[in-house]
Automatic annotation (TrEMBL):
It comes from Candidatus Desulfolinea nitratireducens. InterPro entries: EamA_dom, EmrE-like. This is DMT family transporter. The keyword Transmembrane applies. The chain crosses the membrane at residues 24-43, 64-85, 117-133, 139-162, 182-202, 218-236, 248-266, 272-291. GO terms for cellular component: membrane.
Length: 297
């Protein structure tokens, strides 16, 4: 379900940018929508637990806050900026490098096993994602590519940090999820403040991060994208609570297949034979995951 909601979030966001959305206004509406969604779904049950975590275990609260700020704040911001500055063909492949960075962080921080099977699955999935998103063609790096690579670093580091805290201290996955959009606010507010009061600091990014013009045409897409993002967060941390960080990032590789299908149906995009082969490799690697002990090793 995490892969499905992430795919819907990507497609809806793409439709929003086609409708003329700017990065920061889109993110503002997206984050507010995510907060509202989590408040409806999780607040009645997990709200008191979040308050207890803040009151009685402040050290853990702020550790999780930092991890969520890195993952959902910096990661989301960098990825959206990157998508705005690079071609979709580049972005589609580069975000999959989070698979590699997560497994490396999990190996270093969580001491997860770096088996030969896990390494093989990583390369199969990356090659499949490469064929699916680039049609087997090479691409030239752009400025936006660096932002997406930075987002991969932030996503991986944040998720591995959360996994470490969840394995060493008792804390509900839904409590962590509720904290996530709030923890991302400092990053968004900092970007908005710089954009409004000191746009010169952004240099060539001042146009991309222009704030804050809201047009009715993109708001429904931002709301829908925020709802899907909130649901993806819920399933992300519920899965991390029972499986390894490596497993979570490997299984998210189903996302490009779902995105491709949705793009064909909604955006009238087409798949060529080499892309179908890439999708097949990703599915094959997913089957290997389910038939092995990677999820818990």
């Amino acid at each position: 379900m995490f892969s499905a909601f992430w795919a819907f979030q990507i497609i809806i966001a793409k439709l929003g940018f086609i409708a003329g959305a700017k990065v920061l206004p889109f993110q503002i509406v997206l984050v507010l929508s995510a907060i509202a969604t989590l408040a409806v779904l999780l607040l009645p049950k997990s709200g008191p637990d979040l308050g207890q975590l803040f009151k009685h275990r402040p050290s853990l609260f702020w550790k999780l806050f930092l991890a969520n700020s890195i993952q959902s704040g910096l990661g989301t911001s960098l990825s959206i900026i990157g998508i705005a500055l690079t071609a979709a063909i580049n972005a589609g492949f580069l975000v999959k490098l989070a698979t590699v960075t997560t497994i490396l962080f999990a190996w270093i921080i969580l001491k997860e096993k770096l088996s030969g099977l896990k390494i093989a699955v990583v390369f199969i999935m990356l090659f499949g994602a490469y064929l699916l998103t680039t049609k087997g063609q090479s691409f030239l790096p752009r400025v936006g590519d660096l932002f997406i690579l930075g987002a991969c670093f932030c996503w991986s580091l944040g998720n591995v940090m959360v996994r470490k805290f969840m394995t060493t201290q008792a804390v509900s996955a839904d409590v962590i999820t509720m904290q996530k959009p709030v923890a991302s606010l400092p990053v968004f507010l900092a970007l908005i403040g710089i954009s409004v009061f000191s746009p010169g600091l952004l240099g060539d990014l001042s146009t991309v991060l222009e704030c804050c013009s809201f047009t009715p045409s993109f708001i429904p897409y931002a709301i829908g994208s925020g709802i899907c993002l909130a649901l993806a967060w819920i399933y992300l941390y519920r899965t991390l609570n029972i499986a390894t960080a490596s497993y979570m990032t490997l299984m998210s590789m189903a996302t490009p297949i779902i995105v491709s299908v949705l793009a064909m149906v909604i955006l009238d995009e087409k798949l060529v034979l080499i892309q179908i082969a890439g999708a097949g490799l990703i599915i094959l690697a997913g089957v290997v995951i389910y038939l092995s002990d990677i999820a818990y090793a």
